[in-house]
Amino acid sequence: MAASASVMKINVQHPIKPMFLLKPASQKPSRIRCAAATTKPSKRYSITLLPGDGIGPEVISVAKHVLNLAGSLEGIEFNFQEMPMGGSALDLVGVPLPEETLSAAKKSDAVLLGAIGGYKWDKNEKHLKPETGLLQLREGLQECDIVSRACFQLVDASTLKKEVAEGVDLMVVRELTGGIYFGKPRGFGTNEDGEEIGFNTEVYATYEAVVFFFMTFG
């Protein structure tokens, strides 16, 4: 199953103007006019698009149109560059994160990721799995944390009791580039009794903890 789509927030200084203007109902036939700003863009941003796998290309295609519309209303111009990643990159060049993709991501102002993974590549070796490309991207960009919000809007559908779930608005901040994700040493070996063992290392540097603290509470 493909990993969930990433979300990128674009902050603008002024509220977005109405997208549609409707004529009075008394006039026939009714028509819809689209109003967009015609002023010259005052800001320009480069965005690397990583459609990825599964529903990712469809999500990114729509997101691109949304950003273009929002930008036209607010005097912002987005320059997009689409690059392969995940299973699509494996099929194309044989690796989940091509060097060209990481290089483009580093040079851009933002990265918009669709979805990663699928049943087609589940039996690949670890270094050839689509998800490995996601970890390599996080490490390469030093994306130190991810913010996920949980709001129980469908309380009656929750497995939690209604009185527990109702009104919950929870923000989860997760560290991404330290700890057991990238800790070393790791691997397989044999203990003193001759038994096969596997091991990973949970390790954090001081600067990683400080950055995460200020990203969360600062």
UniProtKB/TrEMBL annotation:
Pfam families reported for this sequence: Iso_dh
Keyword terms of this UniProt record: Amino-acid biosynthesis, Branched-chain amino acid biosynthesis, Leucine biosynthesis, Magnesium, Metal-binding, NAD, Oxidoreductase
Claim: Cytoplasm is one of the keywords in the record: no
Domain of life: Eukaryota
Domain Isopropylmalate dehydrogenase-like per the UniProt entry, residue ranges: 46-218
Record flagged with keyword Amino-acid biosynthesis: yes
Gene3D superfamilies: Isopropylmalate Dehydrogenase
InterPro entries (UniProt xref): IsoPropMal-DH-like_dom, Isopropylmalate_DH
Matches recorded under PANTHER family: 3-ISOPROPYLMALATE DEHYDROGENASE
Protein family per UniProt: Belongs to the isocitrate and isopropylmalate dehydrogenases family.
Protein known as: Isopropylmalate dehydrogenase-like domain-containing protein
